[in-house]
Amino acid sequence: MKKMTKTTLKNKLSKGIATVTFTKKDGTKRVMKATLLPEHLPVVEARVNTTPRKENPDVLAVFDMEKKAFRSFRIDSIQSFEMDS
Q1: What is the pTM (predicted TM-score) of this model?
Q2: Per-residue pLDDT tens for 9-45?
Q3: Which of 3, 21, 14 is nearest to 58 (CA)?
Q4: Which of 7, 18, 21, 43 could form an SS bridge with 79, CB 3.0 to 4.6 Å?
Q5: Residue 61, in any domain of the structure
Q6: Which residues pair with 72 in a beta bridge?
């Protein structure tokens, strides 16, 4: 698979749903239906007086359409990335 940047992945996922296959930290393969489409994301209440986390450039957080929760994966662990039609 051609390596994609975090920005490219975020842009694609903000426009649709993709099937992402990657290797989990424990070495197992995982297939996920992922998106960053605003209409699929849950409403998150703003937290007061919290220090924002430093963003890890190697990890992407996405919304898992099947588990209905946010999940993340390392960008360098992606085996395949296909936009669903």
Answers
A1: 0.86
A2: 999 999 999 999 999 999 999 999 999 999 988 887 7
A3: 3
A4: 21
A5: yes
A6: 61
